[in-house]
C-alpha cells in the first residue's frame, strides 16, 4: 500500500486486479454512470479503457480499495504516441480476432458495437498538443468512493509518478455529457484544451506537470 485515507488505500494495480478494473470501468462507463444496461459485452469497456494500462503502463496504474475490495482506479500512460502503438500493434489484434466488425456506420450499432468498432478500427491520436501534454490517463471511482476527496488524492499519486519521470504535461478525454467530471478536473487544475478539439463525443482537458503537480 502506498498510502491510506480512513478506510481507503491506494496501491499499484496488479494482474490480479484486471477483473476489478473492468468492473469499475463498466459501472462508471456511461459518462460517469453505470453502463451495465447499455453494454451487451460487459468486458469491452474495460478492455479498451482500463485493463491495457495495467499491462502496458503498470508504473502509472493504481487501484483504490476498501474492505469491500477495489472501488476505483487511476491509470496513466506517459507517452501517448507509444501507448497508441502498443494498443494498435499488440493489444487490439488478439481481441479483434474474436469480435465481429460492426462496420463504420454508427447508425447501425447496438449495445457494445461502438467498442467492437474501436477494436477493429484502432485507436486514433487525440487532437491535443502531444509535445506539451504527452501523457494521458483515466480515473473512475465507484459511487461509494466518490465525493470524499479520493479523486484528488488518487490524481496526486498518479500525476506525482508522471512528474517524477519528467513528463511535462497530461491530457484527459471525457464525455461531453460528463459535466461532473469536467467540474472536478477544472477544480484540480486542468483546463479545456485550446483549441477545444472534440473527437466524437470526447472533450479534452490538459494540465502542465512540474515537481509540485497540484
Ligand atoms: C469524477 C471523479 C473521479 C471525481 O472524484 P471524487 O473523489 O468524486 O472528487 P473529490 O472528492 O476528490 O473532489 C476533488 C475536488 O473537486 C471538486 N469537485 C468534485 N466534483 C466537482 C464538480 N462536479 N464541480 C466542481 N467541483 C467538483 C470537489 O469539491 C473537490 O474540491 P476541493 O478538493 O477543493 O474541496 C469521481 O467522482 C468519479 O469517478 N466519477 C464517476 C466516473 C467518472 O465520471 N470518471 C471520470 C471519467 S472522465
Elements, N to C (H/E): EEHHHEEHHEHEHEEE
Stretches where pLDDT is under 50 for at least 5 consecutive residues are none
Number of helices: 7
State the end-to-end CA separation: 22 Å
Structural shape? globular
Relative helix content:
25-40%
- Characterize the main sheet: 9 strands, mixed
Count of discrete domains = 1
Q: From the structure provided, what is the oligomeric state, counting identical versus distinct chains?
A: single chain
Which molecules are bound in this entry? Answer: coenzyme A
Please state the second-level CATH architecture.
3-Layer(aba) Sandwich
What is the CATH homologous superfamily assignment?
A: Gcn5-related N-acetyltransferase (GNAT)
Overall mean pLDDT stands at 95
In CATH terms, what is the fold-level topology?
A: Aminopeptidase
Question: How many beta-strand runs?
Answer: 9
Description:
With 214 residues, this protein is an alpha+beta fold. The chain has a single domain (3-167), classed as Gcn5-related N-acetyltransferase (GNAT) (Aminopeptidase, 3-Layer(aba) Sandwich). 34% of the residues lie in helices and 22% in strands. The chain has helices at residues 18-27, 44-49, 51-56, 80-96, 113-121, 150-164, 179-187, and strands spanning 3-5, 8-12, 61-66, 69-77, 135-141, 169-175, 191-192, 198-199, 202-208. Strands 1, 2, 3, 4, 5, 6, 7, 8 and 9 form a nine-stranded mixed beta sheet that branches. A hairpin with a 2-residue loop joins strand 1 (3-5) and strand 2. The protein is globular, with a radius of gyration of 16 Å. It binds coenzyme A. Residues 28, 32, 139-141, 146-152, 174, 178, 180-181, 183-184, 187-188 line the site of coenzyme A.
